[in-house]
Structure to design on (175 residues):
């Protein structure tokens, strides 16, 4: 069983905590956040985000939607210390590659030959068709659809419900 600390307790953080609780291979030690929230679904707050260095030796999941801030924290912690969290109702093709620290939400589909970099968020109901490439720290909001062969560069945000046509290269946020 992998013991982890979740960083972030906003809306996305709550969703990630709920998903992680459904995985029998993960044990959440607690979470770090700068808000006044003391517990989420029985998981206790351990401190502020700035306390992250006090927890060296632990594994983490950065549950923060802001791509640049997620990158900063991931680099501070070290990519090797990040854990990917996958909702049990998602589908990931056997030949897809998923980086460290990713979040794959409920009812998401990642089809054959697709590659996700590190700390990528694929929110609820998103579809990544075959042979797509998502750069590190990119973020698909819920119900996004990437046609086959799409490339999403690093730190790109794609808003909910957006459709990216096959073969496109996304080099800036789509809002």
């Amino acid at each position: 069983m992998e013991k982890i600390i979740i960083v972030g307790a906003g809306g996305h953080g709550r969703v990630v905590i709920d998903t992680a609780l459904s995985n029998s291979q993960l044990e959440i030690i607690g979470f770090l956040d700068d808000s006044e929230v003391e517990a989420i679904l029985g998981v206790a707050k351990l401190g502020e985000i700035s306390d992250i260095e006090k927890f060296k030796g632990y594994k983490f999941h950065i549950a923060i939607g802001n791509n640049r801030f997620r990158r900063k924290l991931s680099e501070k912690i070290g990519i090797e210390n990040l854990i990917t969290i996958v909702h049990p109702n998602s589908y990931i093709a056997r030949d897809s590659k998923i980086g460290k620290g990713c979040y794959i939400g409920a009812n998401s589909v990642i089809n054959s030959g697709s590659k996700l970099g590190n700390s990528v968020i694929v929110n609820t109901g998103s579809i990544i068709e075959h042979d797509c490439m998502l750069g590190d720290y990119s973020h698909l909001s819920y119900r996004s659809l990437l046609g086959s062969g799409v490339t999403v560069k690093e730190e790109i945000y794609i808003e909910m419900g957006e459709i990216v046509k096959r073969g496109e290269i996304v080099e800036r946020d789509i809002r």
Summary: The mean pLDDT is 97. The CA atoms of residues 49 and 86 lie 23 Å apart. The longest strand covers residues 26-32.
